Amino acid sequence: MLDSIKSLARQYAADIVQTRRHLHAHPELSFHERNTARFVADQLKAIGITPQEGVADTGLVAIVEGRNPGSRVVALRADMDALPIHEANDVPYKSTVEGVMHACGHDAHTASLLGVARILHVLRDQFDGTIKLVFQPGEEKAPGGASLMIKEGVLENPAPVSMIGQHVAPNIPVGKIGFREGMYMASTDELYLTVRGKGGHAAMPDNLVDPVLIASHIIVALQQIISRNRPPASPSVLSFGRFIADGVTNVIPNEVTIQGTFRCMNEEWREEGKKRMVKLAEGIAEAMGGSCEFTIVHGYPFLKNHPELTRRVRSQAVEYMGADNVVDLDLWMAGEDFAFYSQVVDSCFYRLGTRNEARGIVSGVHTPTFDIDESSLETGAGLMSWLAVQELRVV
């Protein structure tokens, strides 16, 4: 089976690259992936697989049944949405949509999973069980396409015993992959504060309630939530990226708006931390004569890789790739809505190396110059096929 999968991955590699290039040139934003979904559906039908369309509006689910399909079910996931970024790369497959770009590799994820569909469809009489292929919209935007697909039953009928996802990694050399057991990626909550006071002439501060000063105290004080209330063993990040005080040199405004993010890897601490932030911010504003409206948009949970599943998958990856090409990953405080799956079903989310310094392919995700070494796509499709088939064999 190993040799068959590698051979098919090599055979389909050029087609997978062309699929990725088509998707890269025609990106669509989160929850607007209509042409992408239509393209994926057409590709699946051409293979001989009829997908379920319209899941969470623009998502698809496809089933590849082997022998004895009810014996065990494994799910594989790819996300399909792009980002509101203007592409700066000068490549033949450059985005044709102004201000929209596949800057996070979702085109590679989707192309790889379509490659998996081709490989497994050919080999369907050589394995027992069922493989569910999940093509998901809206990973980049709350509430996250994963949460919506779960609500619409993507983890039911048939219910997978495990779920595997992969994501490009521009910090890992092409030809290598990375794994981490347990906690891996952070929960993500958005923070929106409006601090109100009484504005006026900056030369007469005694007649004002300065919201700029109040907001400054709040930002500094909120950091003590992390340094003094957070459990020491629980990684957390609190950052503010937007502070708008729309006054001028001699005019203090009536209000200040602040936006930030809170990230952690413990759901209990996550809720406790947010309660403490609201209480502290409102208390400071009141004590200084103003008020604070604190709104929190609840985002993705933290992503946890099931230890036993991840050890199995890593072992199979070593067999497919060689031990020297399988690396360990550090904790990462970025967010990923695959976390929703990981909270419901045993899951493993790993990284596919796409970096090639010799060719200048070194830019990080979410940047205008992001790109991948496309030789990684053969690995992406072949490895995922191998992992799925091997996971079906677990007793």
From TrEMBL:
The keyword Repressor does not apply. One of its GO terms (molecular function) is N-acetyldiaminopimelate deacetylase activity. GO terms for biological process: diaminopimelate biosynthetic process. Its cofactor is Mn(2+). Keywords: Hydrolase, Manganese, Metal-binding. Mn(2+) binds at C104, H106, E140, H167, H366. SUPFAM superfamilies: Bacterial exopeptidase dimerisation domain, Zn-dependent exopeptidases. The Mn(2+) ion enhances activity. Residues 192-283 form the Peptidase M20 dimerisation domain. The keyword Transit peptide does not apply. CDD domains: M20_Acy1 (cd03886). Pfam families: M20_dimer, Peptidase_M20. This is Amidohydrolase. It comes from Spirosoma fluviale.
